[in-house]
Specification:
single chain, alpha/beta, Zincin-like, 4-stranded mixed beta sheet
Length: 244
């Protein structure tokens, strides 16, 4: 996939953007990502100047999107991974409880708590990192199971097939896919309530039929999820809660 960089001036602001071209693509889409910034997916043959004009035309929308992202990022909670802190799993708020044990470290969910049992060898200097990494491993294990099952369910409903489901840390992107049927899910989504998990799954599966967010894309998603707009808005509002 060919990449090109550019920038446009809009008032006192400068908007940098990246263009990714694909032979299969026939339309242009603009994305604003917290990490990757502004980027366009475009077909080959479309003049770069035309894409720059499109960015200028959409500048107000882009700047507003960037403002919202920056505001949302401020609400990502800072974690210390100590007893009493709360974490989410499938929308449930679970209190973290750290215990010492004489066996191998383990995690269990019991009585509304994340119980992390650590052996005596896990001492203080690397303790926080160990707990964080241990929890991530637990989340990924459960995300693989849950997302795999939900993908099978919605693949049948949408009449699409996937070649592979992969977990990734996509830096605030909930999912992505390619035309070979390979789907990547951000493992953090497992912290969200199941209706939002299902929205992310169904959204990415719809992209296997419609690569962009065209009217046909949303109509297709609406056939099996009539309330997708409510789910999308809720994910936008609450999404940053499901990160650490």
């Amino acid at each position: 996939m060919k990449k090109e960089k550019g920038a446009i001036a809009f008032g006192k602001r400068n908007i940098e953007f990246l263009v990714r071209r694909s032979k299969k693509r026939k339309t242009v889409s603009i994305f604003v990502d917290p990490v990757e910034g502004v980027f366009l997916r475009a077909p080959y043959g479309l003049p770069f100047d035309s894409l720059a004009k499109l960015v200028h035309k959409k500048a107000i929308w882009i700047l507003d999107k960037q403002r919202r992202i920056n505001e949302a990022l401020e609400y990502i909670p800072k974690r210390e991974f100590v007893t009493g802190e709360s974490l989410f799993y499938l929308g449930r708020r679970l209190r973290l409880k750290i215990l010492k044990c004489g066996h191998k470290p383990k995690i269990s969910v019991k009585d509304g708590r994340f119980v992390v049992s650590l052996n005596g060898k896990t001492n203080s200097p690397g303790k926080i990192k160990f707990i964080r990494d241990f929890l991530i491993h637990w989340y990924k294990k459960h995300a693989k199971t849950v997302l795999g099952k939900r993908t099978k369910i919605y693949s049948k409903k949408l009449e699409v097939s996937t070649s592979e489901v992969i977990l990734a840390n996509q830096s605030k992107r909930w999912g992505s896919c390619n035309q070979n049927g390979r789907i990547r899910f951000n493992w953090h989504v497992i912290m969200a309530p199941m209706p939002l998990v299902d929205y992310v799954v169904a959204h990415e599966l719809c992209h296997l039929k419609y690569i962009n967010h065209s009217e046909k894309f949303w109509k297709h998603l609406g056939t099996i999820m009539p309330d997708y707009e409510l789910r999308r808005e809720r994910l936008r509002r609450e999404g940053m809660r499901f990160y650490f």
